[in-house]
């Protein structure tokens, strides 16, 4: 499936924190660069996410803000 | 200002595409890894974004989806 | 690619409205039920979206609000 | 109240999963077509959401991505 | 229609900026406190938004970040 | 850090509700006007949010819907 999302970043799952409804996923996309994602626990289980596995962070560009020093 | 956003990624502005209301920003956060952001044109001008400048992509973790092959 | 998004709705592209930065896509997912999406113009072109083509609307469940009468 | 959201989809609540902070709502909007929503538990209680009740999924079009096979 | 969105802020439309696809709306919700919204141009026209009219900003709480000095 | 977000609203933290993964924050931005935010519990702890402290709600304008009576 091809996605309209401009931001599809490949990485390795570093950590999973599981709650009643949501799971927090930490993905390392480059040495020292991590992305954190909150998805439903049901999604995390259906995807089969686990520490050490390869996965992608997918972000719609309208959800990316910019900042400057 | 300290932000609750878990994802604050530093990079260099590669390209700006400007419309009537919105601007599309491409930020290189590591060699070959780019993030695209859509912000209002007014924000882009107020921030002073320009090609070659350093900037940050800021993403709320609830706006990050996960995918697997 | 398997996605964490819980909402992946198949339909037929009914209309495309193109701006300088964004494109508005109308997708019919069932008779009389339409979903409208705003994506970047670059994404719409890369996907090859066109009226009459099959496509999917993908929505993260944290971006769905509920309402009642 | 009239909303700017382009996507207001009527359906029947099929399932509620309740956590400490959030509730996951599954809404059937057409036979076999379901939408999943994550809202705060407080919102779910204030709305009076319950299985079998009619409700609406409300989605801002900038939060809808597109995909193609 | 009752909404799950926790943030429904009443105000007066101060300014509209219209593009090909999107419209930027500035709403004054208290003296000196403004909220800016980007909605589709079609939505702005269907709602009948105009400077001086009363309207509401509606924000899902999962889309609100926090910051501290 | 300067942000592209158009909506940065100063207020006082009124209430924190903490779950396994997320925290719900209620911020009073003017007398009788409150904003509710859902952020990760880890973010709430790193920011040091506590009842009575000053904080900001930060909202990307593309995440603000409009409504009219």
Report what the structure shows.
The structure is a homohexamer of 69-residue chains. The first copy, chain A, has a single domain, classed as OB fold (Dihydrolipoamide Acetyltransferase, E2P) (Beta Barrel), CATH 2.40.50. Chain A contains one helix and six strands; from the N terminus they run ββββαββ. Chain A has one helix spanning 41-47; strands at residues 2-3, 7-18, 22-30, 33-40, 54-59, 65-68. The first copy, chain A, has a four-stranded antiparallel sheet. Chain A is globular and about 35 Å long. The mean pLDDT of chain A is 95. Chains in contact: A-B, A-C, A-D, A-F, B-C, B-E, B-F, C-D, C-E, D-E, D-F, E-F. β5 (54-59) of chain A pairs antiparallel with β6 of chain B, so a sheet runs across the interface.
Outline of the structure:
The structure is a homohexamer of 69-residue chains. With 69 residues, chain A is mainly beta.
Attribute tags:
69 residues, 4-stranded antiparallel β-sheet, 1 helix, globular, 6 strands, homohexamer, mainly beta, 59% strand, OB fold (Dihydrolipoamide Acetyltransferase, E2P)
- What is the N-to-C order of secondary-structure elements of chain A (H for helix, E for strand)? EEEEHEE
The tally of helices of chain A reads 1
Helix content of chain A: 10-25%
What is the beta-strand fraction of chain A?
A: over 45%
Q: Please give the oligomerization state of what you see.
A: homohexamer
Average pLDDT over all residues of chain A = 95
The CATH homologous superfamily of chain A corresponds to RNA polymerase II/Efflux pump adaptor protein, barrel-sandwich hybrid domain
Taken together, the total number of domains of chain A comes to 1
Strand order of the largest sheet of chain A: 4-3-2-5
Number of strands of chain A: 6
Largest inter-chain contact set: A-B, 38 and 38 residues
Gross geometry of chain A: globular
CATH top level assignment of chain A: Mainly Beta
